[in-house]
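A student in our group prepared the protein record below, which I am reviewing. What it holds is a sequence and that sequence's fold in token form. My question to you is simply how this chain folds and whether the tokens agree. Do not assume that whoever made the record got everything right. I have pasted the whole thing underneath without changing anything:
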Amino acid sequence: MVNDDNCKVRQTDGNIYYCGFVNNIGDFGGALEDMPHYCVTIGIYEIAHARKIRLGCFRNWHRAVVRRTAYGDATSDFPVSLLTNHPDINLKITEFVAALEG
């Protein structure tokens, strides 16, 4: 089920996912009319089984994600860490994300 008003999607697992309002705050400066009317949510299983994975980390909070993934254990508690052994993963980061202090 998709509801155009708030991009609500009911997955086959019974969960409901919202994409519009959270993404809109940072990416579109509050311009709801510029948000996509439909969205697709995929899980870590689908991502991990992709032939190629390309990730971009450019926001201030991405720094913590990169650090924890690089130096922490691979666990389901932090799903992106499960991708560290993927045969074709490419990570693009900004200088800010790469910096040790900021």
Confidence is low (pLDDT under 50) at residues 1-6, 20-24. The radius of gyration is 16 Å. The first helix runs from residue 20 to 27.
